[in-house]
Amino acid sequence: MKSDKNISHRPILIIGNSHTTAIAAALNDQTRSIIDVVNLASFFDPINRRNKILHPEIADLFNPEHIFCSFGGSEHSVFGLLEAPTKFDFMTESCSQTEPDRDIITYGLVRTTLSRAMRGAMNNTQKLCALFNCSITHICTPPPFRNISEDAILPRRFQESLDLGVSPPSIRKKLYETHSNIARELCASLNIAFLDIPLGTTDGDGFLYSKFCSKDPTHANSLYGELVIKQILEITNV
């Protein structure tokens, strides 16, 4: 166990993967005094920045009153930001429309595939609940962009498939909604809260407004991060 002087007693801990970057970039002097932000990739692997696992020693380093987690969150983009070699579409309970000239796969197959991809993130959330005895809230992943600009900077994992092109917005949105539904269900099963996206960040069809988009089309920017911090402060009343 770490000595008390090595433990952060800031009341709010935000922990997760790459989606914490927008929140960290939005911190100011006031919020830094009450919020810790931990990106697992760099916190546990500062050289290679590739760690994705929540290690139990995190409980020896932080003693928050409130935790907000954002593990994973890009699985739906990995699945469908770019077109697959065989173009596909699917129907959901809320949307039966599909794009033309595509193989139609079942919603069950999409859910199963996404759930498997999200397994690591879900395991981290379960570990977090076991390690800390305080309020825990899952932060919803930012919505997809409607359009991907030509100057977008795609993460390395997408570079080899750029020639396939970007998937239609309708498919990316359905994948995002499926991803979010799986996360909501996990939160319900763990009896933790689910923090939805900030109001006013999407257009009428549910796509993220461009002013909240980063150059990387799988993440939001610091303006979005500011709104998430505002949500968190309103919830915690810190």
Provide the structure class.
alpha/beta
> How is the main sheet built?
5 strands, parallel
Q: Which CATH class?
A: Alpha Beta
| Secondary-structure element series | EHHEHEHEEHHEHHEH
The count of DSSP E runs of length 2 or more, i.e. the number of strands, is 7
Using only C-alpha atoms, the radius of gyration works out to: 18 Å
Mean of pLDDT: 93
The CATH architecture assignment turns out to be 3-Layer(aba) Sandwich
Describe the structure.
This protein has 238 residues and is of the alpha/beta class. It has a single domain (4-82, 118-236), classed as 3-Layer(aba) Sandwich (Rossmann fold). Helix content is 36%, strand content 12%. It contains nine helices and seven strands. The strands form two sheets. The chain has a five-stranded parallel β-sheet with strand order 2-1-3-6-7, sandwiched between helices. A two-stranded parallel sheet has the order 4-5. The longest helix is centred in the last third of the chain and has 22 residues, at 169-190. The chain starts with 11 loop residues before the first strand and ends with a helix. 32% of the residues are buried. The mean pLDDT is 93.
